[in-house]
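Please check our next protein.
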Amino acid sequence: MEADIIARTGQLGRGGWAAVLDDMRPGMRWLGESRLQINVHDRPPQDISSAQLLFLPVTPRPCWVTWDDRGHYAVVYSCAGALAESGRPAAPRALGALLGPARAGVLVLLDTPKSTSHLVALTGQGLGSVGRHLKILLDAGLVGRRRSGRSVLYYRTPAGDVLVAAPGGGG
């Protein structure tokens, strides 16, 4: 869920609520003026201004909307974000030769902010190993960090971006 929150927050910053809601489920889109279309069916709109609307990320692909008689509504949607994505390329050999393959892999994954636990899940490395790689990359000025609630998120700095984008670097 943390990966989904990070991904959706990025969408919110780039394109507002429309960017977040428009790709949550097929047929759902933000209409503006506090209006949300949840499907493509031609039915009269419902006023749910006094209701509670929950967003529930799940890992399977099906998406649905649910509600009860007490005014609780929920949009159940597929997770977005780094832990939900697959098929990421490995770190390029040249970058791996410079930094070591495991550390290069961590640097490449930081194209979007990620917590240490995300990096552990994505790389399969132990927490201590990922922590050491992050410390070295941080000391070298290739990554930065910032607090997001109770998590610390790591991200590539412009210097890290240049290194990854260099010929043979992988970007």
Q: What stands out?
A: The chain has a mean pLDDT of 81. The chain has two domains: 2-78, 93-165.
